[in-house]
Amino acid sequence: MRISDSNWFEVEEYLKNDDRCVLPLGSTEQHAHLSLSVDSILSDKMAADAAEPLGVPVFPAVPYGLTPYFMGFPGTVSLRLQTYAALVRDILDSLYDTGFRRILIVNGHGGNSPVQPVCAEWMQDRMGARCRFHDWWRAPKTWAAVQDVDPIASHASWMENFPWTRLDGRPVPPEQKPYVDFDRLRDRNAAGVRDLIGDGNYGGHYQKPDADMHRIWGIAVEETRAQLAGDWT
């Protein structure tokens, strides 16, 4: 039940029997040869696929997040931490004020993790509110499935290359890229990060067979759905 496919009458009727919803968080940032919207595409689809059989509303994915280290790549958009924290808090407040009490955040971008304390503060301030912050790609079963395919997996590598994140007519390199030196990334500004990672892939093959990707996706959907359907008491 996507909010974009619903009207307010339907949401009001839903809230008479359930108070759950899903909020996807994404980002607009470089992903090497893949779409700049990879994180938003994946969090949006993951949320929708997980919630669909439960009939739980899914709000539009927030397309911008925290990614200052990729500002050397044109097309990347990064919010300040205080801006993003305020944005997430405003969204949660709006959901609460209109009747939602149990909110699953499906996060598609690791850089967004610093706003998790906002969720904790929000629950403290709002009576009866519950919020779960779910990094879908690194949930235990999903990450195990990724490792089973290839332990060399990273940002903008094969593990983010799904049929729905590829760009038509833009093939990816056939080779495996060596891992970048992560220790050298920690003290670099955006220009320095670009110098170190080149095309944007942190290391690993650029693509794997679709059968592997669909299997990983199915596991991730089930794991995400369990977060939504599980015990909230």
Automatic annotation (TrEMBL):
This is Creatinine amidohydrolase. Belongs to the creatininase superfamily. Its cofactor is Zn(2+). It comes from Sulfitobacter undariae. Its EC number is 3.5.2.10. InterPro entries: Creatininase-like_sf, Creatininase/forma_Hydrolase. GO terms for molecular function: creatininase activity; hydrolase activity, acting on carbon-nitrogen (but not peptide) bonds, in linear amides; metal ion binding. Keywords: Hydrolase, Metal-binding, Zinc. Pfam families: Creatininase. It is an enzyme of class 3 (hydrolase). It comes from the Bacteria. GO terms for biological process: riboflavin biosynthetic process. The keyword Zinc applies.
